[in-house]
From TrEMBL, chain A:
This is Protein FixA. SMART domains: ETF. PANTHER family: ELECTRON TRANSFER FLAVOPROTEIN BETA-SUBUNIT (PTHR21294), PROTEIN FIXA (PTHR21294:SF17). It comes from the Bacteria. InterPro entries: ET-Flavoprotein_bsu_CS, ETF_a/b_N, ETF_b, ETF_beta_N, Rossmann-like_a/b/a_fold. Pfam families: ETF. SUPFAM superfamilies: Adenine nucleotide alpha hydrolases-like (SSF52402). Belongs to the ETF beta-subunit/FixA family.
Automatic annotation (TrEMBL), chain B:
Pfam families: Acyl-CoA_dh_1, Acyl-CoA_dh_C, Acyl-CoA_dh_M, Acyl-CoA_dh_N. The keyword Cytoplasm does not apply. Residues 284-450 form the Acyl-CoA dehydrogenase/oxidase C-terminal domain. Keywords: FAD, Flavoprotein, Oxidoreductase. Gene3D superfamilies: Acyl-CoA dehydrogenase/oxidase, N-terminal domain, Butyryl-CoA Dehydrogenase, subunit A, domain 2, Butyryl-CoA Dehydrogenase, subunit A, domain 3. The keyword Oxidoreductase applies. InterPro entries: Acyl-CoA_dh-like_C_dom, Acyl-CoA_Oxase/DH_mid-dom, Acyl-CoA_Oxase/DH_mid-dom_sf, AcylCo_DH-like_C, AcylCo_DH/oxidase_C, AcylCoA_DH/ox_N, AcylCoA_DH/ox_N_sf, AcylCoA_DH/oxidase_NM_dom_sf. SUPFAM superfamilies: Acyl-CoA dehydrogenase C-terminal domain-like, Acyl-CoA dehydrogenase NM domain-like. Belongs to the acyl-CoA dehydrogenase family. Residues 475-592 form the Acetyl-CoA dehydrogenase-like C-terminal domain. Residues 162-235 form the Acyl-CoA oxidase/dehydrogenase middle domain. Residues 39-157 form the Acyl-CoA dehydrogenase/oxidase N-terminal domain. This is Acyl-CoA dehydrogenase.
Length: 294, 597
């Protein structure tokens, strides 16, 4: 089994403070961490390695400062680490990022065939959830998103079975390898790094690949140039000033209370009120129609 | 009840800014270590301490270890936690790489060990004693003994114990009576009873390696007639597998004030024909070997003091923020407020916090000195660091542990009535802290060592050098602006004066009136603890001031200066009073005729 885990280093949003006067984000001293969602991906990969053997390679595209995130992953027990870094990569959006990661995975694959790629569900700084699917598409990997549990891997049949959380239930999905899996939060708990692994991580050689080493074929697809996304405006939605209202009703009559409440609320949203009224009318109509049939 | 949250910010600060982590990792022998690795290790250890060890601290205390039919069962969760602890490599942190250890600097392992002790002191004793047993074998064991026992002890598969105490040999180990009889095949048979043996039996590992002090036939009386033996619970065959059960049994465990999860065993050796043991090192040199290891063991118990004070402080802060009682002074008709608003609760919390931080700073600085004493390329530097560590270790042991009892008691006080109720968890810290000032040499034994071997014997050379070093800080303090530094400077200078006066008196009187000197030995130990703590807090305040001046807005630094100021006004002010007691107090201590007691 060769498993690749794509991770990203992000600022620890829990530790970001907002300047009390200027209201700007104070980045000073905010530690960088592994994107918390990626920890579920790392743990899932390591658990599979524990079970089936093989190796886990962690991969990140980022500035040279992202190296500690890779060492951290090594200290959990990942075997190899690759940092893909190049000045040209700066300003990449999800399209360009997935291109670079896909190229790097292809390069890794030439050395040791890759059976599985894991990513987190999304990052806490970008929140797009696009990079994983982007990589899968480019590499023509089977894609399983929002996976909450790896049920089994059948190496002989070259297949994997997972559980995927979906609205209203859990889907059990099976597909063939190679596949890319994006892991859902809470699907496992990252193990404790062991002291020997921490020593190994501190000494380990992190492979640093520039665009050539990573096997980038088309430099127009990387960095700012390869990023069609435009951020037109960043703003904080201004809170609407609204006075609290007191709504009184008779506790002994919950139905009437609900109606009072709905009336109050729906006045604010005429569109919904109209729709509701309509459904009610329709229902009434069909019910009376039914009655007539009997 | 609050869970333990490792004070990583203060730990990193003390390691880097006060104890010189950068220099420590440069020392020969630590090539594999750097500050990034140190950060990574502390972070992982803090998670293990907070998530695995802390949650079973209170339940372990409530349940306690159980004895049945010569075997001990540890409380729920302990076996699993221990297995994980060993699997994650924590047992091997400071051990020599030769036997599978990581060979970390003392400074780093000290911070890590503080976390285990804070999170679950009763649990932490097992790996601590194993480390002691490993060091004994490393110090004096033959290669064959090392090969046989060390790898599995370092990996944590087996644990170790120290069997020194007997019913009539506690502080005075020269009175050991346990016998060892040579068998002619290089092994010995051990007969005798040991008491108070921490983790003397348990079900966390399949074997336990006991290190036992005993006397050979015809050995000279007293300290020069005691030898050290390894006695495994199960015999170890040549291929490393376990053989027969050895004749070393836990015949009961004690009912104690605290550390209930840690079994304190009465050990019977040789009730069924003799326990097989192997001599460690040479005959009759057992106590000498114990002395070599003593620094490490005493330091480790001193860290228990720091750790429990920290835990008690965290618990008290947690409660004080939550408990609503009374209104704020000066706010007439105001709302009910959390007790954190009451000046006396703040005084208690600041007292706890400042003493804990001071004790941590001193201990880590001593740990770094122990690293330098062992690894520095320059012999003179090694010797100076060794002398400093030798002087300070009884202080770290004696002062931090006594302080932790006081601090844990203040923690109970913060809780009011709930502090007296077990469910809050505050009471456990007080009960657990109480033992730290007793085992591994009581505070009095530490104080005797301090004023005798570490001061009087060398005419006070090291303490004088340390005092001179302390005085060097004055110019730096004088160069700072602001009321905080004026106060710190004034109190610290007065504290150093008081220390010098007392030190001179003790060194001078030691020969003429040895009883008078010893009547003041514990107060002197406390005095040195306070002034040395104030010294480190003043250094910390200077670093903090420098950071603030450099534009760093981390509130940690402002808090450090406030805490240092508090320590100066509330602890350093005690220095002159202690000196007066030391210099004038012996008369009252010694005057009463014995029959009047
Ligand atoms: C929970 C627990 C765990 C322990 N674990 C271990 C262990 O794992 N292995 C082990 O070998 N031992 C262990 N001990 C024993 C411990 O080290 C001794 O209890 C301790 O050294 C004190 O000895 P003692 O109890 O005989 O007290 P004593 O020596 O009888 O002391 C009684 C009092 O006299 C004072 N005193 C005695 N001599 C002097 C002196 N010369 N000058 C001034 N004052 C003096 C002491 O300070 C104390 O106040 C443990 C004890 C306990 C309670």
């Amino acid at each position: 089994m060769h498993i690749v885990v794509c991770i990203k280093q992000v600022p620890d949003s829990a530790q970001i403070r907002v300047h009390p006067v200027t209201n700007t984000i104070m980045r000073q001293g905010v530690p960088a961490i592994i994107n918390p969602y990626d920890l579920f991906a790392i743990e899932a990969a390591l658990a599979l390695k524990d079970q089936l053997g093989g190796k886990v390679t962690v991969l990140t595209m980022g500035p040279p400062q992202a190296e500690p995130a890779l060492r951290k992953a090594l200290s959990y027990g990942c075997d190899e680490a690759v940092l893909v870094t190049d000045k040209l990569f700066a300003g990449a959006d999800t399209l360009a990022t997935s291109y670079v990661l896909a190229s790097a995975i292809k390069t890794l694959h030439q050395e040791t065939p890759v059976d599985l790629v894991f990513t987190g569900k999304q990052t806490i700084d970008g929140d797009t959830a696009q990079v994983g699917p982007g990589v899968a598409k480019r590499l023509e990997l089977e894609l399983l998103t929002y996976v909450s549990r790896i049920v089994s891997v059948d190496q002989a049949a070259n297949s994997i079975r997972v559980e995927r959380r979906a609205e209203g239930g859990v889907q059990v999905l099976e597909t063939r390898l190679p596949a890319l899996i994006t892991m859902l939060e809470g699907s496992n708990e990252i193990r404790f790094g062991s002291a020997p692994d921490m020593f190994r991580a501190a000494r380990a050689e992190v492979c640093v690949w520039d665009r050539n080493a990573a096997g980038i074929e088309d430099i127009k697809k990387v960095g700012l140039k390869g990023s069609p996304t435009i951020v037109s405006r960043v703003f904080v939605p201004s809170p609407r000033a609204q006075k609290a209202q007191q709504i009184e009703f008779d506790a002994a009559n919950p139905e009437a209370a609900t109606q009072t409440l709905l009336d109050k609320v729906l006045v604010e949203i005429p569109k919904v009120k109209k729709q509701l009224d309509q459904t009610r009318d329709n229902k009434r109509a069909s019910r009376s129609a039914g009655e007539r049939h009997e | 009840m609050s869970q333990y949250n490792a004070p990583l910010r203060d730990m990193h600060f003390v390691m880097k800014e006060l104890a010189g982590l950068e220099q420590v990792v440069q020392l020969p022998g630590y090539e594999e270590v750097d500050t990034d690795l140190s950060d990574a290790i502390l972070e992982e250890a803090s998670k293990f301490a907070g998530n695995v060890l802390s949650p079973i601290n209170f339940s372990g205390d409530q349940e306690g270890s159980k004895w049945h039919n010569k075997a001990v069962t540890v409380p729920a969760g302990f076996k699993e936690a221990y297995t994980q602890f060993a699997e994650n490599g924590w047992t091997a942190l400071a051990c020599s790489p030769e036997f599978g250890g990581q060979g970390l600097p003392k400074l780093i392992s000290t911070a890590v060990n503080e976390m285990w002790k804070s999170a679950n002191m009763a649990f932490s004793l097992c790996p601590m004693l194993t480390t002691g047993a490993i060091e004994a074998l490393m110090t004096a064991g033959s290669d064959a003994l090392k090969q046989k026992f060390l790898p599995k002890m370092v990996s944590g598969e087996w644990t170790g114990t120290m069997n020194l105490t007997e019913p009539s040999a506690g502080s005075d180990l020269a009175a050991v009576r346990t016998r060892a009889e040579p068998q002619g095949d290089g092994s010995y048979k051990i007969f005798g009873q040991k008491i108070f043996i921490t983790y003397g039996d348990h079900n966390m590992t399949e074997n336990i390696v006991h290190l036992v002090l005993a006397r050979l036939p015809n050995a000279p009386e007293g300290v020069k007639g005691i030898s050290l033996f390894v006695v495994p619970k199960f015999m170890v065959k040549d291929d490393g597998s376990l053989g027969e059960r050895n004749d070393a049994y836990c015949v009961s465990i004690e009912h104690k004030l605290g550390i209930h999860a840690s079994p304190t065993a009465v050990m019977a050796f040789g009730d069924h024909g003799g326990a097989v043991g192997y001599l460690v090192g040479e005959e009759n040199r057992g106590l000498e070997y114990m002395f070599i290891m003593m620094n490490a063991a005493r330091f480790a118990v001193g860290m228990e003091g720091v750790a429990l004070a920290e835990r008690a402080y965290q618990q008290a802060v947690w409660y004080a923020k939550d408990r609503i009682q009374g209104t704020e002074l000066g706010v007439r008709g105001g709302p009910k407020v959390s007790i954190l608003k009451h000046p006396d609760v703040r005084r208690l919390l600041m007292s706890m916090r400042s003493q804990t931080e001071a004790a941590r700073a001193l201990a880590y600085v001593v740990a770094a000195a122990m690293d330098a004493a062992k690894h520095h390329p320059d012999e003179a530097v090694r010797a100076a660091n060794q002398a400093f560590a030798d002087l300070m270790i009884p202080v770290v042991k004696g002062h931090s542990t006594e302080m932790s009892i006081e601090v844990a008691s203040e923690g109970v006080q913060v809780h009011g009535g709930m502090g007296f109720i077990e469910e809050t968890g505050a009471a456990q810290h007080l009960r657990d802290a109480r033992i730290t000032a007793i085992y591994e040499g009581t505070t009095a034994i530490q104080a005797n060592d301090l004023i005798g071997r570490k001061m009087a014997r060398e005419g006070g050379a090291t303490i004088k050098a340390v005092i001179a070093e302390m005085r060097k800080l004055d110019a730096k303090l004088a160069a700072q602006n602001g009321a905080d530094f004026v106060a710190i400077r004034k109190r610290f200078a007065a504290g150093v004066d008081a220390l010098e006066q007392a030190a001179n008196w003790i060194v001078a009187i030691f020969k003429d009136d040895i009883k008078a000197a010893h009547a003041g030995s514990v107060p002197f130990l406390r005095l040195l603890g306070i002034v040395a703590g104030g010294w480190q807090m003043a250094r910390a305040a200077l670093v903090a001031q420098e950071k603030i001046a450099g534009g760093d807005s981390d509130p940690f630094y402002a808090a450090k200066i406030v805490t240092a100021r508090f320590f100066a006004d509330h602890q350093l002010t005690k220095a002159q009073g202690l000196t007066d007691s030391i210099v004038d107090g012996a008369t009252g201590t010694l005057a009463l005729a014995e029959e009047l007691f």
